[in-house]
Each structure stands twice: as structure tokens, then as C-alpha cells.
Specification:
By secondary structure, this protein is an alpha/beta fold. It has 12 helices and 12 strands. Strands 3-4-2-1-5-12-11-6-7-10-8-9 form a 12-stranded mixed sheet, with helices on both faces. Helix 8 (about 165-185) crosses helix 9 (about 210-225).
Amino acid sequence: MLALTMGDPAGIGGELTLAAWHALRETGPAFLVIDDAGRLAGGAALRVVANVHEAAAVFAEALPVMQQSLAVPAIPGRPDPANGPATIASIERAVRLVQAGAASAVVTNPISKAVLYAAGFPYPGHTEFLGALTGGTPVMMLANDFLRVVPVTVHVGLQAAIRALTTEAIVVNARITAAALRTQFGIAAPRLGVAGLNPHAGEGGAMGDEEARIIAPAIAALRAEGIAVTGPHPPDTMFTAAARALYDVAICMYHDQALIPLKTLDMASGVNVTLGLPIIRTSPDHGTAFDIAGQGRANPASLIAALRLAATLAERRSS
């Protein structure tokens, strides 16, 4: 049984949840959602449940909901920081269910960082909050059927990302990624392709020295640990079909360097996976989509993919 969070109640998370239940109710994987049953009513048969056992028993007939009441009614497309605490509590409760062994993995609906910041949320995003809740070292990986990417720096501006880029950060992220590919994704000898930071991977220092000063020492350290790693590769050519065949994951230097190629190839099936935690966590690879919330236009494909991947990863970990 998977634990799904509400996400921002003014976004598309509720309608995605209902669509995912309709798609998976007969085949699974089974999940419960920690949400306000009142805002979900009307889109499906609902059953408020007190525990995972009740949720498993009703999943084929009704969407199991663990009640998490909102402070104010949710209006699609109009986020309210007053509901920020409920969004945060939904994440915390899902994590606790997994930590207690009641649920097998956490799947998170999209949040609005700006809304949570206005509510006093002290973390840059989901990934960092989950690290604080579980005591792990979180590493964000995005995956679809064509590509896996890991950004070394994540939710910071580009100038701050360049300042934060260090040899140690690359090594830690790559090490955690390689271990997760072995233990959770079943890749016995993972191949890591490391991107450069600058155009043409620095062009021998003519366009920047970070490749020689920061990235190459990280690659050498990883190779010394027995990890199969190549690079630094020119970022403008390492995402072609031919180049992608040469590695199992791309280690990228900043957020957009990683996410632009993945979302361009196939955003609908993209899944956000948090590596380096003592629990399994996945999420759809998109945001709250306030502009289309409540209009019945949201595509549940990414959430369905996130639920399926979470179940697969949890099964591999348990075995």
C-alpha cells in the first residue's frame, strides 16, 4: 500500500488522484491518499479510513482517504497559504506511515513552494523536507522511459548553483545515485555520464575552468571507488539518442541542465525519485498547474507512472 499526499489543494493534485484511482483500482498498485475528503467528493466513490488495513480492503471499490482537513475551502487555481499547514501535515503523515512499516512508499502530489514559503515553510522544496524528516541525504533523480538525470545543485538560482558546485557535492550525489541504481533499479554495474558546466565542457579552459578544477577531480575520485563514470561531457551533445545509450544516468551540474532534456523527451511519463533516503519516495514530474486546475484537463500519466515506479522500487528494496 502506497501513501499519496494531497499536494497543494488549489492545484491539480486532487483530480490527478481521482484519475489515478480510476486507472489503477482493478490492477493496482493500491494506494491511500491523505487529503480532505470533502474537496474530493463527487469525482469518485470515497471511503474515509483510519488505517492502512481498511484502505487495502476498500481500494477496489472506493478511493481510501485518510482525512486531513483544510483550514479554508480549496478553490481551484487560487492557492491560499492558510492551507499550507495541511499540505505539510499530509507529507509528514505519509512519511510516518512508511517509517512505521504500514505503507511501502510515499508518493507526493505537486506542491507550490511559493505558497508554502508564505506559510512559513523553511525548506527549499519537497526533497530537502523529506531529508529532514527521515535523516537521509536526499538526491533528486528524474526518470522516464528515455533518460535518467540527477542535478547536483537543485532549487537555487543559477549564480548560486555555480557557487555551490564542488567536487565533494558531485562525488556524494554520484555515489548515492550509483548505489540506488544497483539496489533499487536492478542495474548491477551502473554507468554514470557526467555533464560539464560550461559550453563545450569548457573548451579546454577557454570557456571556463570548472571542468578541470571541480568536475574532473570528482570523476577521478569516483573511478577510484570502482564506479563506471565518464565525462565531463559537453552538455549540448550528451542527450542525443546515441549519447544516451552510453550511460544509465546523467549527472548534471544544475537543475535546468537536467530537467530540460528529460521533459523535452517525454514529460508525461516523467517521475521524480528521491534517492539517498531510508524510504522510497516518488512524485510526478510537473507542478501544481494552477492555470488548468478544476477544468478536467490535467493528465494523470505522470502520477500513475510515479505510483507504479514507487511500488516497483519498494518491492525491490524489500526483496
